[in-house]
Protein backbone atom coordinates (compact mmCIF):
# COMPACT_ATOMS: atom_id res chain seq x y z
CA UNK A 1 0.00 0.00 0.00
CA UNK A 2 2.77 2.38 0.97
CA UNK A 3 4.53 1.83 -2.33
CA UNK A 4 1.33 2.32 -4.23
CA UNK A 5 0.77 5.68 -2.67
CA UNK A 6 4.40 6.52 -3.31
CA UNK A 7 4.19 5.88 -7.00
CA UNK A 8 1.07 8.03 -7.17
CA UNK A 9 3.01 10.74 -5.43
CA UNK A 10 5.88 10.42 -7.86
CA UNK A 11 3.39 10.96 -10.64
CA UNK A 12 1.85 13.85 -8.73
CA UNK A 13 5.22 15.58 -8.54
CA UNK A 14 6.02 14.85 -12.14
CA UNK A 15 2.78 15.96 -13.65
CA UNK A 16 0.34 18.00 -11.61
CA UNK A 17 -2.84 18.18 -13.75
CA UNK A 18 -3.25 14.51 -14.61
CA UNK A 19 -1.90 13.35 -11.29
CA UNK A 20 -4.94 14.75 -9.55
CA UNK A 21 -7.05 12.51 -11.71
CA UNK A 22 -4.69 9.60 -11.08
CA UNK A 23 -4.92 10.02 -7.33
CA UNK A 24 -8.68 9.95 -7.36
CA UNK A 25 -8.85 7.44 -10.19
CA UNK A 26 -10.23 4.67 -8.05
CA UNK A 27 -12.62 6.79 -6.08
CA UNK A 28 -15.06 4.95 -3.83
CA UNK A 29 -18.13 3.57 -5.47
CA UNK A 30 -20.34 5.57 -3.12
CA UNK A 31 -19.74 8.45 -5.49
CA UNK A 32 -20.87 6.49 -8.52
CA UNK A 33 -22.57 5.85 -10.79
CA UNK A 34 -23.35 9.20 -12.31
CA UNK A 35 -26.49 9.25 -14.39
CA UNK A 36 -24.39 9.47 -17.56
CA UNK A 37 -22.62 6.21 -16.78
CA UNK A 38 -25.90 4.50 -16.08
CA UNK A 39 -27.37 5.54 -19.45
CA UNK A 40 -28.42 2.52 -21.46
CA UNK A 41 -28.02 0.51 -18.27
CA UNK A 42 -31.30 -1.30 -18.79
CA UNK A 43 -30.40 -2.48 -22.24
CA UNK A 44 -26.97 -3.35 -20.90
CA UNK A 45 -28.45 -5.83 -18.48
CA UNK A 46 -29.19 -8.17 -21.37
CA UNK A 47 -26.21 -9.34 -23.39
CA UNK A 48 -28.08 -9.88 -26.67
CA UNK A 49 -29.87 -6.52 -26.45
CA UNK A 50 -26.46 -5.04 -25.74
CA UNK A 51 -25.17 -6.08 -29.13
CA UNK A 52 -27.98 -4.22 -30.91
CA UNK A 53 -26.97 -0.85 -29.42
CA UNK A 54 -25.11 1.68 -31.54
CA UNK A 55 -21.46 2.53 -30.91
CA UNK A 56 -22.16 5.53 -28.67
CA UNK A 57 -24.61 3.61 -26.47
CA UNK A 58 -22.29 0.60 -26.25
CA UNK A 59 -19.45 2.86 -25.23
CA UNK A 60 -21.67 4.68 -22.69
CA UNK A 61 -22.88 1.52 -21.00
CA UNK A 62 -19.63 -0.48 -20.97
CA UNK A 63 -16.61 1.78 -21.20
CA UNK A 64 -17.45 5.24 -19.84
CA UNK A 65 -17.23 3.99 -16.26
CA UNK A 66 -13.42 3.85 -16.62
CA UNK A 67 -12.49 5.75 -19.80
CA UNK A 68 -14.95 8.62 -19.10
CA UNK A 69 -18.08 9.71 -20.99
CA UNK A 70 -15.97 11.67 -23.49
CA UNK A 71 -13.31 8.91 -23.69
CA UNK A 72 -10.55 11.21 -22.44
CA UNK A 73 -9.75 8.61 -19.81
CA UNK A 74 -8.91 8.61 -16.08
CA UNK A 75 -12.45 8.18 -14.77
CA UNK A 76 -11.24 5.05 -12.97
CA UNK A 77 -8.28 2.71 -12.81
CA UNK A 78 -6.00 5.10 -14.73
CA UNK A 79 -7.73 4.01 -17.91
CA UNK A 80 -5.98 5.95 -20.70
CA UNK A 81 -7.53 8.41 -23.11
CA UNK A 82 -8.93 6.76 -26.24
CA UNK A 83 -9.26 10.02 -28.16
CA UNK A 84 -5.90 11.73 -27.74
CA UNK A 85 -4.89 13.11 -31.18
CA UNK A 86 -1.51 11.36 -31.27
CA UNK A 87 -3.21 8.10 -30.27
CA UNK A 88 -5.94 8.26 -32.90
CA UNK A 89 -3.57 9.26 -35.70
CA UNK A 90 -1.30 6.27 -34.95
CA UNK A 91 -3.63 3.47 -33.82
CA UNK A 92 -5.13 1.28 -36.54
CA UNK A 93 -8.73 0.08 -36.47
CA UNK A 94 -7.43 -3.46 -36.18
CA UNK A 95 -5.34 -2.52 -33.15
CA UNK A 96 -8.39 -0.94 -31.48
CA UNK A 97 -10.51 -3.97 -32.34
CA UNK A 98 -7.98 -6.37 -30.86
CA UNK A 99 -7.38 -4.22 -27.76
CA UNK A 100 -11.13 -4.29 -27.03
CA UNK A 101 -11.64 -7.94 -27.96
CA UNK A 102 -8.62 -9.35 -26.09
CA UNK A 103 -8.36 -6.83 -23.25
CA UNK A 104 -5.20 -6.48 -21.18
CA UNK A 105 -5.25 -9.48 -18.86
CA UNK A 106 -3.95 -8.66 -15.39
CA UNK A 107 -5.26 -5.09 -15.54
CA UNK A 108 -8.85 -3.95 -15.14
CA UNK A 109 -9.19 -3.82 -18.97
CA UNK A 110 -11.19 -7.02 -19.50
CA UNK A 111 -11.56 -8.89 -22.78
CA UNK A 112 -14.84 -7.63 -24.25
CA UNK A 113 -14.90 -9.88 -27.31
CA UNK A 114 -17.37 -12.79 -27.30
CA UNK A 115 -14.59 -15.12 -28.52
CA UNK A 116 -12.74 -14.40 -25.27
CA UNK A 117 -15.79 -14.78 -23.04
CA UNK A 118 -16.75 -11.11 -23.17
CA UNK A 119 -20.17 -9.68 -24.06
CA UNK A 120 -19.49 -8.18 -27.53
CA UNK A 121 -19.87 -9.84 -30.92
CA UNK A 122 -17.40 -8.71 -33.61
CA UNK A 123 -19.97 -6.39 -35.18
CA UNK A 124 -20.56 -4.65 -31.84
CA UNK A 125 -16.80 -4.26 -31.33
CA UNK A 126 -16.64 -2.62 -34.77
CA UNK A 127 -19.37 -0.18 -33.78
CA UNK A 128 -17.38 0.87 -30.70
CA UNK A 129 -14.23 1.22 -32.84
CA UNK A 130 -16.20 3.43 -35.24
CA UNK A 131 -17.42 5.58 -32.37
CA UNK A 132 -13.87 6.02 -31.00
CA UNK A 133 -12.56 6.78 -34.50
CA UNK A 134 -15.21 9.49 -34.98
CA UNK A 135 -13.35 11.58 -32.37
CA UNK A 136 -10.28 12.20 -34.48
CA UNK A 137 -8.27 11.45 -37.56
CA UNK A 138 -7.76 8.21 -39.43
CA UNK A 139 -4.30 6.65 -39.03
CA UNK A 140 -1.61 8.64 -40.84
CA UNK A 141 1.45 7.01 -42.32
CA UNK A 142 4.08 6.80 -39.59
CA UNK A 143 7.85 7.19 -40.04
CA UNK A 144 9.68 3.84 -40.14
CA UNK A 145 11.86 2.92 -37.14
CA UNK A 146 15.46 1.75 -37.10
CA UNK A 147 16.93 -1.19 -35.20
CA UNK A 148 17.67 -0.30 -31.59
CA UNK A 149 19.87 -1.79 -28.89
CA UNK A 150 17.83 -3.24 -26.00
CA UNK A 151 20.75 -3.01 -23.56
CA UNK A 152 21.19 0.70 -24.08
CA UNK A 153 17.41 1.04 -24.01
CA UNK A 154 17.21 -0.61 -20.58
CA UNK A 155 19.07 2.27 -18.93
CA UNK A 156 17.02 4.89 -20.75
CA UNK A 157 13.83 3.12 -19.76
CA UNK A 158 14.85 2.91 -16.10
CA UNK A 159 15.79 6.60 -16.06
CA UNK A 160 12.90 8.06 -18.02
CA UNK A 161 9.94 5.71 -18.30
CA UNK A 162 9.75 3.26 -15.40
CA UNK A 163 8.37 5.72 -12.83
CA UNK A 164 5.11 5.87 -14.80
CA UNK A 165 5.00 2.69 -16.88
CA UNK A 166 6.36 0.29 -14.27
CA UNK A 167 8.63 -2.69 -14.86
CA UNK A 168 8.25 -5.84 -16.93
CA UNK A 169 6.25 -7.40 -14.08
CA UNK A 170 4.62 -4.50 -12.30
CA UNK A 171 2.24 -1.99 -13.83
CA UNK A 172 2.80 1.67 -12.99
CA UNK A 173 0.15 4.39 -13.21
CA UNK A 174 0.33 4.49 -17.00
CA UNK A 175 -0.47 1.86 -19.67
CA UNK A 176 1.54 -1.30 -19.00
CA UNK A 177 3.89 -1.54 -22.00
CA UNK A 178 4.98 -5.05 -20.99
CA UNK A 179 1.48 -6.51 -21.30
CA UNK A 180 1.74 -9.27 -23.93
CA UNK A 181 -1.60 -8.24 -25.44
CA UNK A 182 -0.27 -4.70 -25.84
CA UNK A 183 3.00 -5.80 -27.44
CA UNK A 184 1.07 -8.08 -29.76
CA UNK A 185 -0.86 -5.16 -31.31
CA UNK A 186 1.51 -2.18 -30.96
CA UNK A 187 3.93 -1.81 -33.89
CA UNK A 188 7.38 -0.25 -33.47
CA UNK A 189 6.07 2.69 -35.50
CA UNK A 190 3.13 3.12 -33.11
CA UNK A 191 5.48 3.00 -30.10
CA UNK A 192 7.92 5.42 -31.74
CA UNK A 193 5.16 7.91 -32.54
CA UNK A 194 3.85 7.87 -28.95
CA UNK A 195 7.36 8.36 -27.55
CA UNK A 196 8.37 11.08 -30.00
CA UNK A 197 5.12 13.07 -29.94
CA UNK A 198 3.87 12.22 -26.45
CA UNK A 199 0.18 12.42 -25.61
CA UNK A 200 -0.62 16.14 -25.43
CA UNK A 201 -2.51 17.13 -22.28
CA UNK A 202 -1.38 14.05 -20.32
CA UNK A 203 1.77 13.33 -18.29
CA UNK A 204 3.19 11.59 -21.37
CA UNK A 205 5.54 14.26 -22.72
CA UNK A 206 7.03 14.38 -26.22
CA UNK A 207 10.54 12.88 -26.06
CA UNK A 208 11.53 14.14 -29.48
CA UNK A 209 14.38 16.58 -28.88
CA UNK A 210 15.13 15.08 -25.45
CA UNK A 211 16.03 11.67 -26.87
CA UNK A 212 17.68 11.15 -30.25
CA UNK A 213 15.97 8.98 -32.88
CA UNK A 214 18.55 6.29 -32.11
CA UNK A 215 17.76 6.43 -28.40
CA UNK A 216 14.05 6.11 -29.13
CA UNK A 217 14.86 3.01 -31.19
CA UNK A 218 16.87 1.67 -28.22
CA UNK A 219 13.94 2.14 -25.83
CA UNK A 220 11.60 0.45 -28.32
CA UNK A 221 14.01 -2.49 -28.56
CA UNK A 222 14.00 -2.74 -24.77
CA UNK A 223 10.20 -2.59 -24.54
CA UNK A 224 9.98 -5.32 -27.21
CA UNK A 225 12.29 -7.51 -25.16
CA UNK A 226 9.90 -7.61 -22.18
CA UNK A 227 9.01 -11.21 -21.52
CA UNK A 228 6.07 -12.50 -23.47
CA UNK A 229 4.41 -15.24 -21.46
CA UNK A 230 2.24 -17.47 -23.65
CA UNK A 231 -1.45 -16.57 -23.53
CA UNK A 232 -3.21 -18.50 -20.82
CA UNK A 233 -5.88 -21.09 -21.27
CA UNK A 234 -9.23 -20.06 -19.79
CA UNK A 235 -11.60 -21.77 -17.38
CA UNK A 236 -14.91 -22.90 -18.92
CA UNK A 237 -17.40 -20.05 -19.36
CA UNK A 238 -19.93 -19.56 -16.55
CA UNK A 239 -23.22 -21.35 -17.31
CA UNK A 240 -25.43 -18.97 -15.33
CA UNK A 241 -26.59 -22.03 -13.34
CA UNK A 242 -23.81 -21.94 -10.72
CA UNK A 243 -25.34 -22.06 -7.23
CA UNK A 244 -25.66 -18.58 -5.75
CA UNK A 245 -25.28 -19.29 -2.06
CA UNK A 246 -22.01 -20.55 -0.58
CA UNK A 247 -22.55 -22.69 2.57
CA UNK A 248 -26.39 -22.44 2.42
CA UNK A 249 -26.70 -24.04 5.87
CA UNK A 250 -23.97 -21.95 7.52
CA UNK A 251 -24.41 -19.10 9.95
CA UNK A 252 -24.43 -15.49 8.82
CA UNK A 253 -21.02 -13.85 8.76
CA UNK A 254 -20.11 -11.24 11.32
CA UNK A 255 -19.16 -8.51 8.89
CA UNK A 256 -18.27 -5.05 10.12
CA UNK A 257 -18.50 -2.93 6.99
CA UNK A 258 -16.76 0.41 6.97
CA UNK A 259 -17.58 3.65 5.30
CA UNK A 260 -14.99 5.51 3.30
CA UNK A 261 -13.84 8.99 4.03
CA UNK A 262 -14.98 11.29 1.25
CA UNK A 263 -12.20 12.23 -1.12
CA UNK A 264 -11.37 15.92 -1.43
CA UNK A 265 -13.21 17.32 -4.41
CA UNK A 266 -11.68 20.81 -4.54
CA UNK A 267 -9.35 19.85 -7.37
CA UNK A 268 -11.87 17.72 -9.12
CA UNK A 269 -14.91 19.86 -9.88
CA UNK A 270 -16.67 17.13 -11.86
CA UNK A 271 -16.52 14.61 -9.02
CA UNK A 272 -19.88 13.19 -8.08
CA UNK A 273 -21.15 14.18 -4.62
CA UNK A 274 -19.76 11.99 -1.88
CA UNK A 275 -22.28 9.93 0.10
CA UNK A 276 -20.59 8.22 3.02
CA UNK A 277 -22.12 4.88 3.86
CA UNK A 278 -21.01 1.54 5.20
CA UNK A 279 -20.50 -0.54 2.17
CA UNK A 280 -16.97 -1.90 2.23
CA UNK A 281 -15.97 -5.22 3.72
CA UNK A 282 -12.27 -6.05 3.89
CA UNK A 283 -10.66 -9.05 2.22
CA UNK A 284 -9.64 -10.38 5.67
CA UNK A 285 -13.25 -10.46 6.84
CA UNK A 286 -14.48 -12.26 3.73
CA UNK A 287 -11.60 -14.76 3.89
CA UNK A 288 -12.48 -15.45 7.53
CA UNK A 289 -16.16 -15.91 6.67
CA UNK A 290 -15.23 -18.49 4.00
CA UNK A 291 -12.87 -20.28 6.42
CA UNK A 292 -15.67 -20.45 8.99
CA UNK A 293 -18.13 -21.80 6.38
CA UNK A 294 -20.50 -18.88 6.76
CA UNK A 295 -23.50 -18.43 4.48
CA UNK A 296 -22.69 -15.85 1.83
CA UNK A 297 -23.15 -14.90 -1.82
CA UNK A 298 -20.10 -13.61 -3.68
CA UNK A 299 -20.59 -11.83 -7.00
CA UNK A 300 -17.85 -11.32 -9.57
CA UNK A 301 -18.93 -8.07 -11.28
CA UNK A 302 -16.30 -8.12 -14.04
CA UNK A 303 -16.98 -9.31 -17.59
CA UNK A 304 -17.08 -13.16 -17.67
CA UNK A 305 -13.76 -13.19 -19.54
CA UNK A 306 -12.11 -12.12 -16.27
CA UNK A 307 -14.03 -14.71 -14.20
CA UNK A 308 -12.67 -17.27 -16.65
CA UNK A 309 -9.10 -16.25 -15.76
CA UNK A 310 -9.44 -16.22 -12.00
CA UNK A 311 -12.20 -15.91 -9.41
CA UNK A 312 -12.86 -16.44 -5.71
CA UNK A 313 -14.11 -20.01 -5.09
CA UNK A 314 -17.91 -20.07 -5.19
CA UNK A 315 -18.17 -16.57 -6.70
CA UNK A 316 -20.92 -16.31 -9.32
CA UNK A 317 -20.38 -14.29 -12.47
CA UNK A 318 -22.93 -11.44 -12.59
CA UNK A 319 -21.15 -8.85 -14.73
CA UNK A 320 -21.98 -5.15 -14.47
CA UNK A 321 -23.21 -5.27 -18.06
CA UNK A 322 -25.59 -8.24 -17.63
CA UNK A 323 -27.24 -8.11 -14.25
CA UNK A 324 -30.33 -10.26 -14.86
CA UNK A 325 -29.20 -12.87 -12.35
CA UNK A 326 -29.48 -10.30 -9.55
CA UNK A 327 -33.22 -11.04 -9.60
CA UNK A 328 -32.44 -14.47 -8.15
CA UNK A 329 -30.68 -13.03 -5.10
CA UNK A 330 -32.84 -13.80 -2.05
CA UNK A 331 -33.88 -10.83 0.07
CA UNK A 332 -33.73 -12.84 3.30
CA UNK A 333 -30.77 -11.28 5.06
CA UNK A 334 -28.15 -13.36 3.24
CA UNK A 335 -24.95 -11.33 2.91
CA UNK A 336 -23.91 -10.43 -0.64
CA UNK A 337 -20.36 -9.31 -1.44
CA UNK A 338 -19.49 -8.02 -4.93
CA UNK A 339 -15.97 -7.57 -6.22
CA UNK A 340 -14.07 -6.38 -9.26
CA UNK A 341 -10.45 -5.56 -10.05
CA UNK A 342 -10.57 -1.79 -9.67
CA UNK A 343 -11.45 -2.42 -6.76
CA UNK A 344 -14.65 -0.37 -6.39
CA UNK A 345 -16.17 0.59 -9.70
CA UNK A 346 -17.93 -2.31 -11.35
CA UNK A 347 -18.74 -3.90 -7.98
CA UNK A 348 -20.10 -0.55 -6.81
CA UNK A 349 -22.59 -0.52 -9.66
CA UNK A 350 -23.81 -3.99 -8.77
CA UNK A 351 -24.14 -3.15 -5.07
CA UNK A 352 -26.11 -0.01 -5.98
CA UNK A 353 -28.53 -2.18 -7.97
CA UNK A 354 -28.90 -4.65 -5.10
CA UNK A 355 -29.58 -1.89 -2.60
CA UNK A 356 -32.16 -0.41 -4.95
CA UNK A 357 -33.88 -3.79 -4.78
CA UNK A 358 -34.03 -3.49 -1.00
CA UNK A 359 -31.16 -5.87 -0.25
CA UNK A 360 -29.47 -4.23 2.71
CA UNK A 361 -26.65 -6.67 3.39
CA UNK A 362 -24.83 -5.94 0.16
CA UNK A 363 -21.26 -4.70 0.25
CA UNK A 364 -18.16 -4.30 -1.87
CA UNK A 365 -15.03 -6.37 -1.35
CA UNK A 366 -12.94 -3.40 -0.35
CA UNK A 367 -9.57 -4.14 -1.91
CA UNK A 368 -10.86 -6.14 -4.88
CA UNK A 369 -9.77 -9.49 -6.27
CA UNK A 370 -6.24 -8.48 -7.24
CA UNK A 371 -5.37 -7.79 -3.59
CA UNK A 372 -7.16 -11.00 -2.56
CA UNK A 373 -5.06 -12.93 -5.07
CA UNK A 374 -1.88 -11.09 -4.15
CA UNK A 375 -2.28 -12.23 -0.53
CA UNK A 376 -2.41 -15.85 -1.58
CA UNK A 377 -6.05 -16.31 -0.49
CA UNK A 378 -7.78 -19.18 -2.30
CA UNK A 379 -8.79 -18.68 -5.93
CA UNK A 380 -9.97 -20.79 -8.84
CA UNK A 381 -7.53 -19.88 -11.63
CA UNK A 382 -6.86 -20.94 -15.21
CA UNK A 383 -3.47 -22.63 -15.69
CA UNK A 384 -0.64 -20.11 -15.80
CA UNK A 385 -2.53 -17.25 -14.16
CA UNK A 386 -0.25 -15.94 -11.42
CA UNK A 387 -0.96 -13.76 -8.42
CA UNK A 388 0.02 -10.11 -8.88
CA UNK A 389 3.48 -9.34 -7.48
CA UNK A 390 3.60 -8.88 -3.70
CA UNK A 391 5.86 -5.88 -3.80
CA UNK A 392 5.26 -2.55 -5.38
CA UNK A 393 2.45 -0.70 -6.96
CA UNK A 394 1.16 -3.88 -8.50
CA UNK A 395 -1.89 -3.95 -10.65
CA UNK A 396 -4.27 -2.00 -8.46
CA UNK A 397 -4.33 1.75 -8.93
CA UNK A 398 -3.95 3.98 -5.88
CA UNK A 399 -7.12 4.81 -4.02
CA UNK A 400 -7.67 7.82 -1.82
CA UNK A 401 -9.69 5.51 0.39
CA UNK A 402 -6.61 3.54 1.41
C1 LIG B 1 -12.79 -1.34 -15.35
C2 LIG B 1 -12.17 -0.29 -16.14
C3 LIG B 1 -12.23 -0.37 -17.66
C4 LIG B 1 -13.33 -0.60 -18.45
C5 LIG B 1 -14.78 -0.82 -18.02
C6 LIG B 1 -12.85 -0.54 -19.83
N1 LIG B 1 -11.51 -0.28 -19.84
FE1 LIG B 1 -10.35 -0.07 -21.52
N2 LIG B 1 -8.71 0.07 -20.36
C7 LIG B 1 -8.70 0.14 -18.99
C8 LIG B 1 -7.33 0.23 -18.53
C9 LIG B 1 -6.87 0.31 -17.08
C10 LIG B 1 -6.50 0.18 -19.69
C11 LIG B 1 -4.98 0.19 -19.72
C12 LIG B 1 -4.48 -1.21 -19.44
C13 LIG B 1 -2.98 -1.32 -19.33
O1 LIG B 1 -2.40 -0.86 -18.38
O2 LIG B 1 -2.38 -1.94 -20.20
C14 LIG B 1 -7.41 0.10 -20.83
C15 LIG B 1 -6.99 0.06 -22.15
C16 LIG B 1 -7.84 0.15 -23.24
C17 LIG B 1 -7.41 0.26 -24.62
C18 LIG B 1 -5.98 0.30 -25.10
C19 LIG B 1 -5.52 1.74 -25.11
C20 LIG B 1 -4.09 1.93 -25.45
O3 LIG B 1 -3.59 3.06 -25.25
O4 LIG B 1 -3.42 1.00 -25.93
C21 LIG B 1 -8.54 0.36 -25.38
C22 LIG B 1 -8.61 0.51 -26.89
C23 LIG B 1 -9.67 0.29 -24.48
N3 LIG B 1 -9.21 0.16 -23.19
C24 LIG B 1 -10.99 0.36 -24.87
C25 LIG B 1 -12.06 0.08 -24.02
C26 LIG B 1 -13.42 -0.04 -24.48
C27 LIG B 1 -13.89 0.21 -25.89
C28 LIG B 1 -14.16 -0.40 -23.39
C29 LIG B 1 -15.63 -0.74 -23.34
C30 LIG B 1 -16.05 -1.79 -24.23
C31 LIG B 1 -13.28 -0.44 -22.24
N4 LIG B 1 -12.01 -0.15 -22.67
C32 LIG B 1 -13.67 -0.72 -20.94
C33 LIG B 1 -9.80 0.10 -18.15
C34 LIG B 1 -11.09 -0.17 -18.55
C1 LIG C 1 5.18 11.17 -16.15
C2 LIG C 1 4.71 9.85 -16.52
C3 LIG C 1 5.23 9.24 -17.81
C4 LIG C 1 6.54 9.09 -18.20
C5 LIG C 1 7.80 9.51 -17.48
C6 LIG C 1 6.48 8.38 -19.46
N1 LIG C 1 5.19 8.12 -19.81
FE1 LIG C 1 4.57 7.14 -21.46
N2 LIG C 1 2.63 7.50 -20.98
C7 LIG C 1 2.22 8.08 -19.80
C8 LIG C 1 0.78 8.15 -19.83
C9 LIG C 1 -0.10 8.70 -18.70
C10 LIG C 1 0.34 7.62 -21.06
C11 LIG C 1 -1.09 7.49 -21.58
C12 LIG C 1 -1.58 8.85 -21.96
C13 LIG C 1 -3.00 8.87 -22.48
O1 LIG C 1 -3.95 8.69 -21.72
O2 LIG C 1 -3.17 9.07 -23.69
C14 LIG C 1 1.55 7.21 -21.75
C15 LIG C 1 1.55 6.60 -23.00
C16 LIG C 1 2.65 6.00 -23.56
C17 LIG C 1 2.64 5.18 -24.74
C18 LIG C 1 1.42 4.88 -25.58
C19 LIG C 1 0.69 3.69 -25.06
C20 LIG C 1 -0.63 3.49 -25.76
O3 LIG C 1 -1.07 2.36 -25.90
O4 LIG C 1 -1.24 4.47 -26.17
C21 LIG C 1 3.92 4.74 -24.95
C22 LIG C 1 4.40 3.82 -26.04
C23 LIG C 1 4.74 5.31 -23.91
N3 LIG C 1 3.94 6.09 -23.09
C24 LIG C 1 6.09 5.10 -23.77
C25 LIG C 1 6.90 5.80 -22.87
C26 LIG C 1 8.34 5.72 -22.84
C27 LIG C 1 9.17 4.81 -23.73
C28 LIG C 1 8.77 6.56 -21.87
C29 LIG C 1 10.18 6.88 -21.49
C30 LIG C 1 11.02 7.44 -22.53
C31 LIG C 1 7.59 7.15 -21.27
N4 LIG C 1 6.48 6.68 -21.90
C32 LIG C 1 7.60 8.02 -20.19
C33 LIG C 1 3.01 8.54 -18.78
C34 LIG C 1 4.39 8.62 -18.82
UniProtKB/TrEMBL annotation:
Keywords: Heme, Iron, Metal-binding, Signal. Residues 1-21 form the signal peptide. Residues 292-381 form the Rhodanese domain. SMART domains: RHOD (SM00450). Pfam families: Cytochrome_CBB3, Rhodanese. Residues 50-136, 148-227 form the Cytochrome c domain. One of its GO terms (molecular function) is electron transfer activity. It comes from the Bacteria. This is Cytochrome c oxidase subunit CcoP. The lineage of its organism: Bacteria, Pseudomonadati, Myxococcota, Polyangia, Polyangiales.
